[in-house]
Amino acid sequence: MRLHQFHPSGNCYKVRLLLHHLDLPVELVDVDYLGGETRTPAYRKINPIGRVPTLELDDGTFLPESPAILWYFAEGTPYLPADRLQRARVLQWMSFEQYDHEPYIAVARNWVSYAGIPRGKEGELRERQEKGRKTLAVMDEHLRTSDFFAATYSIADIALYAYTHVAREGEFDLSLYPHVLAWLERVRSQPRHIGITERP
Length: 200
Ligand SMILES: N[C@@H](CCC(=O)N[C@@H](CS)C(=O)NCC(=O)O)C(=O)O
What we know:
Residues 1-81 form the GST N-terminal domain. Residues 83-200 form the GST C-terminal domain. InterPro entries: Glutathione-S-Trfase_C-like, Glutathione-S-Trfase_C_sf, Glutathione_S-Trfase, Glutathione_S-Trfase_N, GST_C, Thioredoxin-like_sf. It comes from Pendulispora brunnea. 52% of the residues lie in helices and 7% in strands. The chain is of the alpha+beta class and 200 residues long. It has two domains: 2-74, 3-Layer(aba) Sandwich (Glutaredoxin), CATH 3.40.30.10; 84-188, Glutathione S-transferase Yfyf (Class Pi), Chain A, domain 2 (Up-down Bundle). α1 links the parallel β1 (2-5) and β2. α1 packs across α6 (155-164), α4 packs antiparallel against α5 (122-145) and α4 (84-115) runs parallel beside α6. The longest helix is centred in the middle third of the chain and has 32 residues, at 84-115. The site of glutathione has 13 residues, from loops. Glutathione binds next to loops.
């Protein structure tokens, strides 16, 4: 099994974190996304949208999109609850992550700390940061009365942790969200947790 990935990407880290929890070995294939490798015809053959991560199964099947990869591995494990409503809760927060979190918090981080702010997009960066702050406030309110996003630690927490714990790299002040900070610690204290820079 191989994971085509860019190591600093939170989307790729989500998958590495779950695989490490599950003690499933994976070969990491580094893709130079900042250098344009995801846009090459060869890469688009394995992922038509041209993004990382892409999972390559042993039979040569490719599965793109971090939520799909997380779901694939979490089935039948404690990281995806069996209860019907709780599964829907996991999907609810994973959808939130893709629509209300990643486009603001991950993109701000990428522009500020990795790729550079595209020319003329300084105003757009401020707008994305404003929307990201609203997202963090929604998370903080949920975590005021809940330890995790569903009833127990799940792939919803893994998906949301990936870019939240490095949100400072996108100029977000996490000290404004005390319940988020406490949840980050709860996630870090889970068995077999690994950090974003570690290579399992
Ligand atoms: N919805 C996708 C988003 C993946 C994504 O945006 N990956 C970025 C790196 S973090 C990428 O490959 N970007 C390449 C590009 O846009 O050209 C997922 O969750 O896997």
